[in-house]
Amino acid sequence: MPRISFDLSHINRFNTTMSFSFSLSRRLSSSLSLSIPNFPPFLPNPTFPLCFHSQPPSIDNVVDDVVSQFDDMLLLRHIPPIIEFGKILGSLVKMKHYPTVISLSKQMEAKGIVPDLVTLSILINCFCHLGQMAFSFSVLGKILKLGYQPNTIILNTLMKGLCLKGEVKKSLHFHDKVVAQGFQMDQVSYGILLNGLCKIGETRCAIKLLRTIEDRSTRPDVVMYSTIIDGLCKDKLVDEAYDLYSEMNARGIFPDVITYTTLICGFCLAGQLMEAFGLLNEMILKNINPNIYTYNTLIDTLCKEGKVKESKNLLAVMTKKGVKPDVVIYSILMDGYCLVGEVQKAKQIFLVMVQTGVNPDVYSYNIIINGLCKGKRVDEAMNLLREMLHKNMIPDTVTYSSLIDGLCKLGRITTILDLTKEMHHRGQPANLVTYNSLLDGLCKNQNLDKAIALFMKMKERGIQPNKYTYTALIDGLCKGGRLKKGQALFQHLLVKGYCIDVWTYTVMISGLCKEGMFDEALAMKSKMEDNGCIPNAVTFEIIIRSLLEKDENDKAEKLLHEMIAKGLLPFRNFHSERSSVTNKVIVNFHSE
């Protein structure tokens, strides 16, 4: 093994102010992503947004027992060999108690116990996990001072630590320095670097590094290819990803379930569902079993396209092949049914999930609660909230926001205010969505003073109103006979340079029409057109209906013809789908 020397003053130049954390995205948000399980810490792997639904059980008692065992060993008359201490430190690392390992290492040093390469390697690993790279390299200096030679595992751990902090260039520089001194890196080393480059969006550089590796004694492997394929898919370069997949096949580097799942995810994100299912069939033909993440991706994509029946069929195939559905899959299906308005079927899936021994989580409850609220089945949704509380589950802001929105649409203001107090009591802060729902509900129920007070309160709490907030409040003010205040708020938006959309303009036009200010309403319509905001059918309907009610038939007729000319009212197909307001306008117009 080559002798390696390091300039320790160079080590001290590593930035100690940055820190990193290992965070796993627990949820799907607007779309589900897949995750890759059981990769050892600090080994390269294709990275996916992770979506876990449960936390590991508490291990505090186990940690206490291990630390107690360590303390007993220090008190023994004859200190056990260093390998025994290494076993204890290693077990704590597996439990991710890195600060505890560092603390125990200091106790060993205070007792005069000389560390070996294994315990020093463990210490480096802990500092890397905590983002304390300067300390990691200090331990490397200690290794050299004690006359040990760092092995590939230690060097890989350091490179991985730098990459996880986003210091990929420093990791590459460290690699170059080590290689220049004659040390041979392995497949894991290059997997780390490729993964680091792809994580910061430098997929092209990763491909160049892959080509460089080919000129060395290290042979590219399936992990390296899968990592770059994942990076290309995230960059929406799925065709290039498929080319790389074809290349690895041609070179006799066989894709595994991770490679296929990555590529399937890429095709799904690109909207190429046929190609995704083609890969699924291909991997099955090659006796590569799809895992739960493969099915998650496909079922999620089908549901988003409204193909819930096909999703359920795929779930049946998955179950038949021995892949047990988890809470993620069931949640996807429930969300799919809710998206197409079939809340009852979503509830049936929820019951099946419970019956099969899969525990629903907050996210699962949120899906059903939101679906029920949108279907005006708020009492059922409230029962589910009580069920969550009975199970000692903590409803989050999304749970309460869905319920508040549903209650607002039914005008149940007293219940809303009680729920808002409960939300605050349980430590769930109201977000912009919550405030918008509350504001809209108060305005629609003519509680304008409370709505204005709420508007001021949200601003005081640092929550910035968006266009939906302003539109709801302007609408409420106009309908509540406070047109001037509505106009003042609208003018405020213009002065502040807000991008006002068709709905805000339409609300303001409606307010002007309500007060019989037709010239001002028409002027507002012209102004919105000048600003590049095109009136929609609702805008025209509001003005025309108001004109007809005031016997301004000529002006109404002119606008009706303009509406037809703009293609907003296909007159030739009188029975085509229209809003009830549009049909009413036409009937009123023809009855004159």
Explain the overall architecture:
The protein is mostly helical and 592 residues long. Helices cover 67% and strands 0% of the residues. The protein contains 31 helices and no strands. The chain has helices at 8-11, 60-75, 82-94, 98-110, 117-129, 133-145, 152-164, 168-180, 187-199, 203-214, 222-234, 238-250, 257-269, 273-285, 292-304, 308-320, 327-339, 343-355, 362-374, 378-390, 397-409, 413-425, 432-444, 448-460, 467-479, 483-495, 502-514, 518-530, 537-549, 553-565, 580-591. It starts with 7 loop residues before the first helix and ends with a helix.
Distance between the termini: 99 Å
Biggest beta-sheet profile: none
Broad structural category = mainly alpha
Radius of gyration: 31 Å
Contiguous uncertain segments of 5+ residues: 1-57, 571-578
Residues in β-strands, percent: under 5%
Helical residue percent band: 55-70%
The average pLDDT value, as a whole number, equals 84
What's the total helix number? 31
Number of strands: 0
Describe the global form: elongated
Looking at this protein, list some descriptive labels.
592 residues; mainly alpha; elongated
